[in-house]
């Protein structure tokens, strides 16, 4: 299905980043990974992406798969560890063991695949700050290039995360959540990881380019069930059900789960929301240039209030959240949606 999809709807220009996500691509045997990789390269007109990430569950990281991926040109692996505590892995219903996590990490280093990300989840029932610090230090000891830390209540699976999760989340007590965030920030920054987005930390030079492209409201094309795309003035999601997705492919009339025409106003809003989640902040000059006359109605009042309350600071045309602001980045995003 994926091969056919790439064949029927190839990107109109070569993609600079490729991301195989959803956590399960690693379940494919090495030969199938190779077949899919060749299809991607054909669709990309033989151009090797600058960054090509594959998400894998720890139990699926095996030498034959890793070698095939490396030969294709994959240069980044993201492993969904979630926790280094057996009791928390149980609570999360994860199927991998701690031993499999260590085996996966050792293999990546042995195969010279140092550019890998470890996903961790905090605010898991039964997890206190001491356990969270243990997880952070275990992740650092694994020597990855990148660490992502997600609060159990919000996993940013798509660029549409904010719009989708609006009002559907049981929040942790905000003060408690803030303490987890602050601990991540201090432990990771003192060990050479730089926070470049609320949930993401990287060693210098290893920020995930695919994510940056998405958060800067550029264009991307998604293939496969539930994949989201933002292209040519539209945003859409493929059907969630495999059967529906395949039948759309067979009939040549793909169906979309939801489709939005992107007005400059929507893009301007999203550029602010996601831009402020990044430590670099939003360049308001670039924002006005890309989306002239599209500022949300009360934006100026809101911007001044953010600065006045110490939640944001502005240098030249660069507006960025302060450390305090970053703790409530979700809430700031929701308020921008309401402007």
Account of the protein in words:
The chain has 339 residues and is of the alpha/beta class. The chain has helices spanning 2-8, 30-43, 63-72, 86-91, 98-110, 129-141, 161-165, 174-189, 209-215, 242-251, 264-277, 284-290, 299-308, 323-327, 329-337; strands at 17-20, 51-56, 76-82, 116-122, 146-151, 194-197, 200-202, 228-231, 234-237, 258-261, 282-283, 312-315, 318-321. It has a seven-stranded mixed sheet with strand order 1-2-3-4-5-7-6, with helices on one face. It has a three-stranded antiparallel sheet with strand order 8-9-10, with no helix packed on it. The chain has a three-stranded antiparallel sheet with strand order 11-13-12. Helix 3 (63-72) links the parallel strand 2 (51-56) and strand 3 (76-82). Helix 1 runs parallel beside helix 2 (30-43) and helix 2 packs parallel to helix 3 (63-72). It is globular and about 55 Å long. Mean pLDDT is 89; it is low at 155-161.
Summarize the structure in short:
The protein contains 15 helices and 13 strands. It has 339 residues and is of the alpha/beta class.
Structural class label: alpha/beta
Largest sheet: 7 strands, mixed
Instruction: Measure the end-to-end span.
Output: 42 Å
Helical proportion? Answer: 40-55%
Tally of individual helices: 15
How much strand content do the residues show?
15-25%
């Amino acid at each position: 299905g994926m091969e056919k999809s790439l064949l029927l709807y190839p990107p109109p220009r070569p993609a600079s980043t490729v991301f195989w996500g959803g956590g399960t691509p690693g379940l494919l045997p090495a030969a199938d990974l190779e077949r899919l990789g060749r299809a991607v390269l054909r669709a990309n007109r033989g151009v090797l992406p600058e960054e090509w990430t594959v998400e894998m569950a720890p139990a699926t990281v095996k030498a034959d798969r890793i070698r095939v991926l490396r030969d294709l040109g994959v240069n980044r692996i993201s492993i969904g560890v979630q926790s280094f505590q057996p009791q928390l892995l149980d609570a999360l219903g994860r199927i991998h063991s701690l031993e499999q996590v260590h085996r996966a990490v050792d293999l990546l280093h042995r195969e010279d695949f140092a550019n890998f990300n470890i996903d961790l989840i905090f605010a898991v029932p039964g997890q206190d700050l001491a356990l969270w610090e243990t997880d952070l230090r275990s992740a650092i000891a694994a020597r990855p290039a990148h660490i992502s830390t997600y609060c159990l209540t919000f996993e940013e699976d798509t660029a549409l995360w904010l719009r989708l999760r609006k009002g559907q989340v049981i929040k942790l007590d905000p003060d408690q959540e803030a303490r987890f965030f602050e601990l991540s920030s201090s432990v990771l920054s003192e060990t050479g990881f730089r926070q470049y987005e609320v949930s993401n930390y990287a060693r210098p030079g290893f920020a995930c380019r695919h994510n940056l492209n998405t958060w800067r409201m550029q264009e991307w094309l998604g293939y496969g069930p539930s994949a989201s795309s933002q292209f040519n003035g539209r945003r859409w999601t493929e059907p969630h059900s495999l059967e529906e997705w395949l039948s759309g492919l067979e009939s040549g009339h793909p169906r979309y789960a939801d489709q939005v025409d992107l007005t400059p106003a929507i893009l301007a809003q999203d550029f602010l929301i996601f831009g402020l989640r990044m430590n670099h902040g939003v360049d308001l000059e670039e924002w006005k240039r890309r989306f002239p006359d599209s500022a949300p109605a009360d934006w100026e009042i809101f911007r001044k209030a953010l600065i006045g309350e110490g939640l944001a600071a502005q240098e030249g045309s660069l507006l960025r959240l302060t450390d305090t602001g970053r703790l409530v980045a979700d809430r700031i995003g929701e308020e921008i949606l309401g402007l």
